[in-house]
UniProtKB/TrEMBL annotation:
Organism name: Mycolicibacterium murale
Superkingdom field: Bacteria
Keywords recorded for this protein, A-Z: Hydrolase
GO molecular function: hydrolase activity, acting on carbon-nitrogen (but not peptide) bonds
Protein name stated in the entry: 5-methylthioadenosine/S-adenosylhomocysteine deaminase
Domain Amidohydrolase-related: 56-426
Gene this protein is translated from: mtaD
Family matches, as Pfam families: Amidohydro_1
InterPro entries for the chain: Amidohydro-rel, Metal-dep_hydrolase_composite, Metal_Hydrolase, MTA/SAH_deaminase
Amino acid sequence: MSKTAWVGARVLTMDPAGTEYAEGAVVTDGDRIVAVGAADRVDTRGAELVDCSGSILLPGFVNAHTHASQILLRGGPNHSRGLYDWLLNVVVPGLAAYTDDDLRTAISLYCLESIRAGVTTVVANEEPVGDNPREQLQIIADTFRDSGMRARVAVLFRDQRPEAVGSERGVSEGFDLPAGDELDETFALIAELGAHYRGVTAGMVDVWPSPATTAVASTKALRRSARHAVEHGGRWALHLAEIPLEQSSRGYSPVRYLDELGLLDHRLVAAHCVHVDGDDIAALAASRAAIVTNPVSNCFLASGIAPVPAMLAAGAVVTLGTDDANVNDAVNPISDIKTLALLHRAVTADPTVLQPEELVRMATVDGALALGLQDVGHLAAGMAADFQVVKADDPHMIPSHDPYATLVFQALGHEVRDVVIAGKQVMRNRRVAAHSDATQLSRRAQQASAAVLDRAGISPRRSLA
């Protein structure tokens, strides 16, 4: 990688001071940023120049909670279902019908869509299905690596079943629970793959534990996940208080339960946190556990609305996830942060909540903080060269006076022109290097999805008749 200067964009550094440059320059050398500043003051000698006039340059988005492999199960069969209906009657049988090629196609499609949306880092919660979890996790991790993305593959598992789940079962014969020795094997595999990918990718890809929820993961599994994060210097992921079932299965708040166990701390990446009260919010804020709000999927599944303004007012760390690719049904942080803003302005009847700069910060800086990435999330000399260039001169982006407002309320998500991750330009003029034949990949994914639904016995179109 040669020295490169990205010149002429409006640069949003997202640094602690909120520094902006109306006509800025970002210079990279290898995988690092070596200079950021006004274009007429930054030394660009010896650098290849990239003209970014008419654009906004900002850090790449961090998608802190998602399920990438499910992308082949969107577009029809996933609609008009509650969470466990969708999980047990679409996701479980659908994933069980995947071949290895289907899985590789799914992750490839997810990476293509993510990069085109300006995502540079992702936490992908993935549950291996079948007899060879190692091979499936390797396919997922290898495909993220080959795409050039930063990825945390969070291995989803469960080891107990609440009685309430049984009433939601339809066609699904899945939802198997591991035996005790299999739980040991799961953690051994997570440790082995984590060490391997941290080594061969220089930390670009890592593997974490992800017990599904407090309702379907035992105290032992939760404790082991937290201990694993400490021992391996990483994080652990968890779906927390997404639906009332978690509270009804125990009789009191799952946040309080974790707090009593001593498991709330900065290493926990807790998705959703919809059904929480003031005490829960205070405990999450005090612990510095990361809350990942998923506004679109929570609306899609009618799960509720997380009280994000109250969380932020309490000082909690809150970041953004697009969640499952088949309960959104897109990978588009720009669209999701607009939804987040509009939801809470409508609910609170307050047009001042969740200001545009705050929303962009949630999807960049706070995402990096949640994942423990010290050199990602803002633009400064010495930081990793992870950023996106967003075209801001199309008619729907004009006029633009506040670049944050333009990104949140005018952009649609397809304006991202270029993406750089660890100094490598993974997308140039909307063409993603690792998936250069996007048409062929899309055609392959459509065919794979149809075959998966057929093998799983899932109707491709949801009818309520």
